[in-house]
Amino acid sequence: MDFFYTIISAIGAFIATNIDDIFVLMIFFSQANKEFTARHIVLGQYLGFILLVVLSLVGTFGINFIAEKWVGLLGLIPIYLGIKLFIKGEEEEDETSIIAKLQSDRVGFYFLNVAFITFANGGDNIGIYVPFFSTLNLNDLVITVITFLIMVAVWCFLGYRLATFRHVSEILEKYGRWIVPVVFIGLGFYIMAENNTFSNLWSLFG
């Protein structure tokens, strides 16, 4: 019974902290092409999420690399990428994938921007995962992490399926050059606002 309760708790914690990530994944999958493939997206999603879990595990055992009040600064990552997309979008009017415009010619590193966005978007997850992990024994912790990794695959599948809906894909194909950077910049400000970063900065310099 404890086994199933642990799995259900893990699924609930994952959904509660990653529900907004579905839309981000949908954006990524809508931009997939021969160079920026689904494999890059899945790999980047796993890399970013695993880093979140590792930092949460480290935090559970009493070591914090990022003060909780400054986690929101991770929102600067998608803001930077969004601004970069706006600049690139104005310079290039061809039909090249908008995500590809963020990359160099080294295709093997396409997944890193996905990982950066995943990590930044889940930065506040650490504040939830640390106390959640601290309530678990070793066996439950292993089950929870495995469940999380399975849920990442489920999330990638849902994001992929949503991106293939005809009306969704048509809108993203037509307006993606503007939608994607707006989403990234909005996501960055949301991350900062959600973590009270602006008020923390104000108190620091005010």
Detailed description of the structure:
This protein has about 210 residues and is mostly helical. Helix content is about 75%, strand content about 0%.
Shape: globular
- The number of helices is 9
Arithmetic mean of pLDDT: 77
The secondary-structure element order is HHHHHHHHH
Q: What does the radius of gyration come to?
A: 18 Å
How would you sum up this structure in a few lines?
The chain is built from 9 helices and no strands. The protein is mostly helical and 206 residues long.
Layout of strands and helices, then pairs:
Layout: H1 2-18, H2 21-30, H3 38-60, H4 76-91, H5 110-121, H6 125-134, H7 138-163, H8 166-194, H9 197-205
Helix pairs in contact: 1-7, 2-7, 3-5, 3-6, 3-7, 4-5, 4-8
Brief descriptors of the model:
mainly alpha, 206 residues
